[in-house]
Amino acid sequence: MSGQTSFVQQAPNHPETSARFGDLHPPFDKQAAIPEANRCFFCFDAPCTGACPTHIDVPRFIKKIASGNLSGSARTILDANILGASCARACPVEVLCEGACVMHRFNKQPIQIARLQRFAMDSLHASGAPLPFAPGPDTGLSVALIGAGPASLACAAELRRRGIRAQLYDARPLPGGLNTYGVAEYKLPLVESLREIEMLSQLGVEFHFATMIDAEMLAGLEHEHDAVFLGIGLGGIHRLGIAGEQLPGVTNALDLIAGYKSGECTTVPARVAVVGAGNTAIDAAVAAVRLGATEVHIAYRRGPEQMSAFAFEYEHARLEGVKFVWHTQPTRILGGESVEGLELTRLAASADGQAGSEFCLAVDLVVLAIGQGTHSGLLSGKVQVERGRIVIDRATGQTSDPKYFAGGDCTNGGREVVDAVADGKRAGIGIAAWLGAALASA
């Protein structure tokens, strides 16, 4: 499928479910955005820009908002980050740009950079204006990009701006990867992910959906194209390896999130246990609350100080009513025809019992969120892989096979959307430079 320009029309429409997933951070209107923009010091050596993995010129785009130049603001954002709209919603700005804001030095609230960035991008979409870039002059070169997530999308944008054909292949029916299927709806609605991707169609990016890439097909794409970009993400979520895991009522966090975002899941049972304590586990637990669960627990084998979820995500989950069970290890899932309970062993003494003692949570749904596997088997020794991650030159994204480049979760083990965008951006520039050098020496 190529030349697709109606992704938004394909987004599922389920008003009741969507109503449960209102914005985590409501958008600014003009009356709020302008005063907030004018709070910025427009620092020359801006730490916020340095803290952004894609290095958006934050003072520049905010100053353009303050002066009323919203199209110029959006262009500044997109020039550095083609997925600036989704990153404005999904980025953990508290530990990135806003966390670096100089306002902290004066014990003042940091500039609300993410909401200002979203304001500029929403204004661009609402105006109906096209992407403020055009594809470069055709070079006759082409690149196959495996996976249509943030890394591949960012890479494709850089290639098209340099006149290189970009063809994306993805196993799912819609592009966007985790932006579309895996980021909580209250952070990044599916329709917003698709709206953003339509801009890439304007650049001439070509999409091929429902296409599973195996080693044989990968070899064919390598032969057909001048370079290959691997943006294959991570594999499925790990299993616990305990009795009862095969029962109906056991799922994983990514499937739960993808299910309600696609409209296939509109409700969950009353009692839910999520195993794991990363950001994805938090998203799944909050989703369960919003989908109708009356009792949601997160079970984690360590304490709150060791959880990988950000502190603000933890606090948000607590405010949503999620309960945490620390220092516990699942040992068995109970039930006959479906899940009825989760048996846990205490790994440390607490007010509720001694280390080694067992107890049971009465639950109807168990959601696993204990890390993901890899797709390294697809590569069949094609590129160097260490600990399940594709090894790359961080500056260019090039792998041990010079024709292959990679970026995103398959290289960093699973970080933020903006990190994947930064990887893809560097790789797109790196591919263009490598191909240019090869042509010059031919």
Describe it:
This protein is an alpha/beta fold and 442 residues long. It has three domains: 8-127, Alpha-helical ferredoxin (Fumarate Reductase Iron-sulfur Protein, Chain B, domain 2, Orthogonal Bundle), CATH 1.10.1060; 142-171 and 211-235 and 375-441, FAD/NAD(P)-binding domain (3-Layer(bba) Sandwich), CATH 3.50.50; 250-368, FAD/NAD(P)-binding domain (3-Layer(bba) Sandwich), CATH 3.50.50.60. The protein is built from 16 helices and 15 strands.
What distinguishing features does this structure have?
single chain, 442 residues, alpha/beta, Fumarate Reductase Iron-sulfur Protein, Chain B, domain 2, FAD/NAD(P)-binding domain, 3 domains, five-stranded parallel sheet, 16 helices, 15 strands, 15% strand, disordered N terminus
Quaternary: single chain
What would the principal axes of the Cα set say about the shape? globular
Strand order of the largest sheet: 3-2-1-4-15
Global Rg = 23 Å
* Major sheet size, sense and barrel closure: 5 strands, parallel
Q: Considering DSSP H and I runs of 4 or more, what fraction of the residues is helical?
A: 25-40%
Tally of distinct domains: 3
> For the record, what is the CATH homologous superfamily label of the largest domain?
FAD/NAD(P)-binding domain
Strand content: 5-15%
Tally of DSSP helical segments: 16
CATH topology of the largest domain, which one?
FAD/NAD(P)-binding domain
